[in-house]
Write a structure and sequence with these properties.
InterPro entries: DUF2085_TM (IPR019206). It holds the Pfam family DUF2085. By secondary structure, this protein is mainly α. The protein is built from nine helices and four strands. Helix 2 packs antiparallel against helix 3. The two termini are 27 Å apart.
Amino acid sequence: MSVPKILKNPLFLISIIVWLYVLIPFIAPIAYTVENEKLGWGINQFYENFCHQRVERSVFLFGKSSPISFYTVQELKDAKAIPQTNTNPGRYIWPEYFGHDYVGNKVVGYKVPICIRDIALYGSLALFLTIFSLLKPKTVDKYATQRLYLYGFLLLLPMILDGVAQTIIEGFMIKSVPLSYIHSISKRIVTGSLFGLGLSLILLKLFNEGRLTKQEEKGKI
């Protein structure tokens, strides 16, 4: 019994891993909704190793007012979903940090334990890797030129620059920058999605070069 070609494609195999990584966090809000707190908290604890999980940069699901919601810190304080003050301010560089320990409640909904930028980044990466894995080798050979590295790198830049700016702004506590910019959800979705696309283009080029090299080596034998 022969293995389907798609299962031999490294891009497809990577996409499966990335799909799992980005979709499993959505089980946590579902678990909390059906009162399986052990499962929800376990997923939350696992993903805190990979993401800050800040509430003002995350999406909440299954709240009373809306199935999908985004909140500011003050809105969550008013709804009593987080404390009025950080319970452990010395643990973080930010004066107000509500992340790993706060999962939401029945009123505001339950937090997906990876931030919205991570969802956009890994979702975009998984989607484009899946699409690229379905392309015929001849099509890939036609479009996977050396410029693909340049295009990929340029798509990485918006998130890199925003991340550096954000670190400087928060690290030095520059208060002249509006919070609406720092915590902008739309900015995070766009930069994360572009980063995912850029990384997928770079991986497409890398693996295609590897495939062509193997073909050349076989031809010499």
